[in-house]
Write a structure and sequence with these properties.
Number of domains: 3
Shape: elongated
CATH architecture of the largest domain: Alpha-Beta Complex
CATH class of the largest domain: Alpha Beta
Structural class: alpha+beta
CATH superfamily of the largest domain: endopeptidase domain like (from Nostoc punctiforme)
Number of strands: 20
CATH topology of the largest domain: endopeptidase fold (from Nostoc punctiforme)
Number of helices: 6
Distance between the termini: 140 Å
Order of helices and strands: HEEHEEHEEEEEEEEHEEHHEEEEEE
Strand content: 35-45%
């Protein structure tokens, strides 16, 4: 290599080192400037705990307002909110390298609420407010005696109807949970209507003084037949069956109660059949499957008469004629009358207890 080329090469190397040094100094200066540059943010705090960081004092104030009034009820008045510890706002300087995550006013309010409703909250928000709303007024059940109904029978004469009242309350909530309420005043705006139940008093027959086995406690007597599962009354079998059906109809409208045997307070399907026939001195088991083993089997529905048992799988009712049964149907319908076939289940058997 000649001298001239050597000199030029050394020159270029010197210039390159110089440029690199300048670039390094500029980069160092930039990094130093970024590291030490300061920017102001606003911290929303409960005591010493920072709940959220926002960009301005206005956003911080809006976040607090939204959080503290988050539990206001629609239409409430005289609202007083107290935070413990008090929620405060404090300006703080951060470097660009360590700047925190900044929230909008809405998100900051959400963070405050989430903290208050958490398992270990740093802030407690107590809201006291006055609210006015409607409340139902329960109706009473009134029982009236009626000689139009057979003794022990009941009939719903008038459906009860709840009333309404306007109620003003002072409500205290802590972090959204109601802790106390005080009724200030109330005014009935709609009067309730009583539910009227008629109680039967009519006695169709006199007591049987002999107290014969199987007596229904009426003028007629009921006796077991030779097989022990059919019965004979002083009246004809058809007349006894009609009496059974008529008696069962007195309790239409009363409730269905699983396992119940009360014609007035509630019975299930087999409990209803048991209670109706018990009135006529006949003891039956409280089981729909077992009850269909009593009486004699009737060949078809066209041969059925009032008082016969219409038996399904898991259900039973009393035939009243005209292709209908009276039975304790379910909780929704109670003791009711339905046309046979209402449930699309086939009849297993028809049993007649009065021969």
């Amino acid at each position: 290599m000649n001298i001239l080329k050597k000199i030029k090469l050394e020159k270029y190397l010197s210039e390159g080192v110089f440029v690199l040094a300048i670039a390094s100094l500029l980069l160092f200066a930039e990094l130093s400037s970024s590291t030490y540059a300061q920017i102001a943010f606003w911290e929303v705090k409960a005591g010493d705990e920072v709940l959220a960081v926002v960009r301005s004092e206005e956003a911080a104030g809006e976040a607090i307002r939204q959080a503290e009034h988050h539990y206001d009820k629609d239409g409430s008045t005289d609202v007083v909110v107290e935070s413990q510890p008090s929620i405060s706002v404090e300006q703080n300087q951060y470097s660009l390298m360590s700047a925190p995550k900044v929230s909008s006013a809405e998100n900051a309010a959400g963070r405050i609420i989430a903290n208050a409703e958490g398992s270990d909250p740093d802030v407690t928000i107590t809201t006291t407010q006055t609210i006015t709303g409607t409340r139902k007024v329960s109706f009473d059940t009134v029982e009236k005696k009626s000689d139009e109904l057979i003794e022990d029978a009941t009939k719903l004469q008038t459906m009860g109807e709840a009333g309404e009242e306007l109620v003003t309350q002072k409500l205290v909530m802590v972090n959204g949970e109601e802790v106390s309420s005080e009724e200030i005043e109330s005014q009935v705006t709609k009067e309730p209507r009583d539910r009227i139940m008629l109680l039967g008093t009519r006695v169709d027959d006199k007591e049987d003084p002999k107290g014969s086995e199987g007596s229904a406690g009426k003028a007629f007597r009921v006796r077991k037949s030779g097989n022990g599962k059919t019965f004979i009354g002083d009246l004809s079998g058809a007349e006894m069956g009609r009496k059974v059906a008529e008696y069962g109809l007195h309790f239409v409208g009363n409730p269905y109660v699983w396992g119940g045997e009360s014609l007035t307070h509630g019975a299930d399907c087999s409990g209803f059949v048991l209670a109706v026939y018990k009135h006529f001195g006949i003891s039956l088991p409280h089981d729909a499957h077992a009850q269909r083993n009593y009486g004699i089997k009737i060949a078809s529905l066209k041969d059925a008469r009032a008082g016969d048992l219409i038996c399904y799988h898991g259900h039973i009712g009393i035939y009243i004629g005209n292709n209908q049964i009276v039975h304790a149907m379910n909780e929704a319908n109670g003791i009711t009358v339905k046309t046979i076939g209402y449930n699309r289940k086939p009849i297993v058997t028809i049993q007649r207890l009065f021969a």
